[in-house]
Specification:
374 residues, alpha/beta, 4-stranded mixed sheet, 3-stranded mixed sheet, 10 helices, 17 strands
Length: 374
Amino acid sequence: MPKKTPAMPLRQVFWSGSKLAIICSILLCVFALLRLQSQPELPTRRSRAVSVEFHGHPKIAFLFLVRKNLPLDFLWGSFFENADSSNFSVYIHSEPGFVFDETTTRSAFFYNRQLSNSIQVAWGETSMIEAERLLLGKALEDPANQRFVLLSDSCVPMYNFSYIYNYLMASPKSFVDSFLDMKEGRYNPKMSSIIPKHKWRKGSQWITLVRMHAEVVVDDDIILPVFKKFCKRRPPVDESYGRKNIKLQKLHNCIPDEHYVQTLLAMSELEDELERRTLTYTLWNQSTSKMEGKAWHPLTFKYADAGPRHIKSIKDINHVNYETEHRIEWCRSNSTFVSCFLFARKFSKGAAMRLLSEGVVGPFDAAALIDTPH
């Protein structure tokens, strides 16, 4: 007759059940932690000493991102000459060590306005967005600066100061060209743990921000490191590389300044606070050379291109069509229909001179153009 197995003591049953419950609880906690870490981390806005509501007279900060000098300083000098100095401030990011003074610029508005901590900038590299952040950071030190306009050394104003000031101050929104980037070549899937693909945006580098959004850009320490690691320009085609070119052209071709601010603001859930368009007009020409592939390049306006009829055609543009989103962006400022563009690029000296002589930015003193800085 087989022996009966003795029954497990009640205490042992209880202890075994407790151990099982503890193990299950630990596994659930680990699973929850892994799920939490896999979720994209949203940028958070730090508190700032100057992030208090401003009650004084607001200013526009004009942020010039230039290679070295300002070749169109004579036009901008006339533009600022016809403005109240309490309505604007000027900041310049130039090559390290370059100083704006009476020997390098025709306009006193630019004297000593260069940043002291500028960096060497390369097109298509993250140094471009780092320079933008330096400009914004410096301008944020003045609490009166409430609008921040990023400009290149070939940008020109299309209206006088009064019109531009009223246009910008009438709108509580930033003006950021931003749309879905449907092309596979720029988004790197390695970003997905931080930047999901549905938040990936593209747009013009030339932005105009309200103060709160400028702070978001300067305070970001989440999206920028991802861009530095994964958003890089693909090396250009070099015939001497031979078959190696095939491998190089399979790399992601990411241009940081065309994606960073747009993606950061999308990740920060701020797109409802934007006019999703740029205020800077650019005329593009598509290149179809075999070496370059299909690439878009901005055309330069010459003297003949800056006549009244051409300028009027730019000012008459009142909407922008975004094909990837099947969206038409009608140009408004505080719910009022307006011209889309306040600035334009790329303008030669001759084209800028024609704008000046025809009074586009206001009256000017021709004598100011006689003395050319060295």
